[in-house]
């Protein structure tokens, strides 16, 4: 039984679902295991598709000269929806990527924790 290609085109061997035998990519990130959001990819894409529709609707509202407060209400709803997507991605990142790096230890763990901290700071500021 062969498994489908992993990110970057390398196939994982049976018993090696993460494709851990792959060489490290030049960007310095450990892509040797699948990112956890891939298991929720369909859900995330559905959410993003709905958000995309909301934003197009906001554009139509502006084009139709809809009452400002009604447009702002829709902007707020779209913003909350995007924030929820960001929180799901962050949760998966912490639960998968950061946890994996922490188990491995060393500089990768420090880097992943710093990345997560910076992502949280960006979300809080937005």
Brief characterization of the structure:
This protein is mostly helical. Helices cover 63% and strands 0% of the residues. The radius of gyration is 19 Å and the shape is elongated.
What's the helix and strand layout?
Layout: H1 41-63, H2 68-104, H3 106-125
Over all CA atoms, what is the radius of gyration? 19 Å
Main pleated sheet:
none
Q: What series of H and E elements makes up the topology?
A: HHH
User: How large is the count of helical segments?
Assistant: 3
Helix content: 55-70%
CA(first)-CA(last) distance: 46 Å
CATH A-level architecture of the domain at 39-125 = Up-down Bundle
**How many beta strands in the DSSP annotation?**
0
Annotated CATH topology of the domain at 39-125:
Methane Monooxygenase Hydroxylase, Chain G, domain 1
User: Superfamily at the CATH H level of the domain at 39-125?
Assistant: Metal-sensitive repressor, helix protomer
Rounded mean pLDDT score: 78
Shape: elongated
Oligomer: single chain
Indicate the proportion of strand residues: under 5%
If you had to describe this structure to a student in words, what would you say it looks like?
The protein is mainly α and 126 residues long. It has a domain of 87 residues: Metal-sensitive repressor, helix protomer (Methane Monooxygenase Hydroxylase, Chain G, domain 1), CATH 1.20.58. 63% of the residues lie in helices and 0% in strands. The chain has three helices and no strands. Helix 1 runs antiparallel to helix 2 and helix 2 packs antiparallel against helix 3. The protein is elongated, with a radius of gyration of 19 Å. The N and C termini lie far apart (46 Å). The N terminus is likely disordered.
């Amino acid at each position: 039984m062969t498994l489908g290609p992993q990110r970057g085109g390398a196939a994982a061997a049976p018993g090696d679902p993460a494709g851990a035998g792959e060489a490290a990519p030049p960007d310095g990130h450990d892509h040797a295991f699948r990112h956890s959001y891939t298991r929720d990819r369909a859900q995330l894409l559905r959410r993003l598709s709905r958000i995309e529709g909301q934003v197009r609707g906001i554009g139509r509202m502006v084009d139709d000269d809809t009452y400002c407060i009604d447009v702002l209400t829709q902007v707020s709803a779209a913003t909350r929806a995007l924030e929820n997507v960001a929180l799901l991605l962050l949760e998966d990142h912490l639960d998968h990527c950061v946890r994996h790096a922490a188990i491995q230890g060393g500089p990768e763990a420090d880097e992943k924790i710093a990345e997560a901290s910076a992502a949280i700071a960006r979300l809080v500021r937005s």
